[in-house]
Design brief:
Low-confidence stretches: none
Mean pLDDT: 97
CATH topology: D-tyrosyl-trna(Tyr) Deacylase, Chain: A
Radius of gyration: 15 Å
CATH architecture: 3-Layer(bba) Sandwich
Number of domains: 1
Length: 149
């Protein structure tokens, strides 16, 4: 499982011109699910996301987590995080999980976050979405449940 985590002042996702999810200060997370990912991968990624110390403390140091600052999360599914563009010019998405299985793990990730009393918004799984992100910093972190980076 992969996540692109962006510290944001504001972000929202729309589908066909309709706002489906919107947050203020917090994290915008683009989440990709790979064939073979399990609930254990989701638990690892979610734990990392909510505990990343990427918010500034009173001294201006990145020392606080989303939990510390009471931030919100916009969680957006993005199979293209498993696009492989090493050969040719057109990415291959063969590593991305099939939509039915991916949605199960995406929904499980949402359940974990909501059980932590974090305000979580999302788009529509599998839809053509437009994501507006006001990245704060900018601060963008890449996570991978296989610890590849």
């Amino acid at each position: 499982m992969r996540a692109v985590v962006q510290r944001t002042n504001h972000s929202m996702v729309t589908v066909e011109g309709q706002v489906k999810g919107e947050i203020k200060q917090g994290l915008t997370v683009l989440l990709g699910i790979k064939k073979g990912d399990t609930e254990k991968d989701a638990e690892y990624i979610i734990d990392k996301i909510v505990n990343l110390r990427i918010f500034e403390d009173e001294k201006g140091k990145m020392n606080l987590s989303l939990l510390d600052v009471g931030g919100e999360i916009l969680l957006v599914s993005q199979f293209t995080l498993y696009g492989d563009a090493r050969k040719g010019r057109r990415p291959s998405f063969t590593e991305a999980e099939l939509p039915e299985k991916a949605q199960e793990l995406f929904d499980y990730s949402l359940e974990i976050l909501r059980s932590m009393d974090i305000k979580v918004e999302t788009g529509v799984f599998g839809a053509d979405m437009k994501v507006l992100i006001e990245n704060d910093g900018p601060c963008t972190i890449l996570l991978d449940s296989e610890r590849l980076f």
